[in-house]
Design goal:
By secondary structure, this protein is mostly helical. The chain has two domains: 1-66, Orthogonal Bundle (Rna Polymerase Sigma Factor, Chain: A), CATH 1.10.1740; 84-149, Winged helix-like DNA-binding domain superfamily/Winged helix DNA-binding domain (Arc Repressor Mutant, subunit A), CATH 1.10.10. The chain is built from eight helices and no strands. The longest helix has 19 residues, at 130-148. It is globular and about 50 Å long.
Amino acid sequence: MDLKEQYDRLLRYCYMKTKDPYLAEDIVQETFLKFWQSRSYKDTGKEMAYLYTIARNLCIDGFRKPKTENIDDYASSAVYVMSEQEKAVTQLALEEALNKLPDDLREIVTLRYVSGISVADIGRIVGMSRFSVYRRLKESLRILKKYLE
């Protein structure tokens, strides 16, 4: 397991859930700490699914603080500064559309397309069958397309 790559993926996931870079970093550090201290994990080759499950539970268990977002904050943020103005506008529109999705659908989309987690692993993380994950991904993409039109 490449720790740097896993850390970056978990950080992106936690940031998408919390919208707070410092809180996301704290959650990721706590996730790895719990992973290494856990005696219940058996090496089955599914470390990422286990790490995402820990991170998700930490976000749900109290690290997640609801916060209203102002779209103007993104315009001045270094995260969204891109060389092409059109890409920046598209990214902002996509972020806004993602925020309109219900939390459960946004989480599945984030896990699949931002973090690159397999559908089977997403099913294990959120506790549903892979067919339900496929169905919800399809529904999410349909809703996003509608929002972006």
